[in-house]
Amino acid sequence: MYSPFQLATKYIRYYLTATNGKGHGIHSPFVFEFVKFVLNDRKQYPCYKKIENIRNKLLKDKTVIMVEDFGAGSAVIKTNRRVVSRIAATSLKSAKFSQLLFRIVQYYKPKNIIELGTSFGTSTAYLASGNKAAKVFTFEGAPAIAAIAQSNFKTLGCENIELILGSFSNTFASSLPKINPASLAFVDGNHRKIPTLEYFNQILLIAHKSAVIIMDDIHWSREMEEAWVNIQQHNAVTLTIDLFFIGLVFINPDFIVKQHFKIRF
């Protein structure tokens, strides 16, 4: 992965070259609508406080659990004996981006949602809260982490979540038929190039014709940046939006011209 200095340098470059977050100068009606009604929606929805209360409890939890890491590994924690609060501090998606996930789901109303990488379930809860009529299929490899996530779902009353436990290589492909078609996917499970591209291509096989695929940490490492470029160039991809910490991928066939945007957020 990139060092904090390298990442900061990349962020400054992104910030200076990205379109401002107010929608000025965006000539795509679809993207302008996204910026206006989703990206810049400042309303404080009721679920925000409930889920952030869960996050705050996790950040104070000193329980030690055993974690087997199936992905690229934590950039900070190098042992399998891990404290809940440290995992929460380093692996949970920030409130800013988690709440954006909620607004994306709320606005586009996907029916079947995939999340690769449950962690303690805060982002999962935001996805599930965005559309109570949707079904969220979330995949987690570590039993101890999954158990805490399940407890959080129960506390929050999120009944439209199915957590699938096990290594992604053993569970993901075999679970796809029951998810078909997938309207939205959030890929946050493995920060290596080849697995990331494999998951993306597997999702495409069952993707709804106007699906949204959200790729996490697209600038986390050289490998992830290479994966992001490959995804942008894929024939099925018609529109991408780079928000630096996540990338949004649209495969809507109604978009005739392939377009890529960088927008400050």
Strand content: 15-25%
Shape annotation: globular
Structure annotation, total helices: 10
Q: What value does the average pLDDT take?
A: 93
Strand order of the largest sheet: 5-4-3-6-7-9-8-10
Backbone structural class: alpha/beta
Number of strands: 10
Terminal CA distance: 22 Å
Low-confidence region ranges: 73-78
Helix content: 40-55%
Q: Which radius of gyration do the C-alpha atoms yield?
A: 18 Å
Mind describing the biggest β-sheet? 8 strands, mixed
Element order: H for helix, E for strand? HHHEEHHEHEHEHEHEHEEE
Chain-wise SSE layout:
Elements (H helix, E strand, L loop, with lengths): L3 H14 L11 H11 L6 H15 L3 E3 L14 E3 H8 L3 H14 L3 E5 L5 H9 L4 E6 L2 H14 L4 E5 L2 H12 L2 E6 L5 H14 E10 L5 H12 L5 E4 L3 E5 L8 E4 L3
Parallel strand pairs: 3-4, 3-6, 4-5, 6-7, 8-10
Antiparallel strand pairs: 1-2, 7-9, 8-9
Helix pairs in contact: 3-4, 3-6, 5-6, 8-9, 9-10
List the main descriptive attributes of the protein structure presented here:
two-stranded antiparallel sheet, 46% helix, 265 residues, alpha/beta, 10 strands
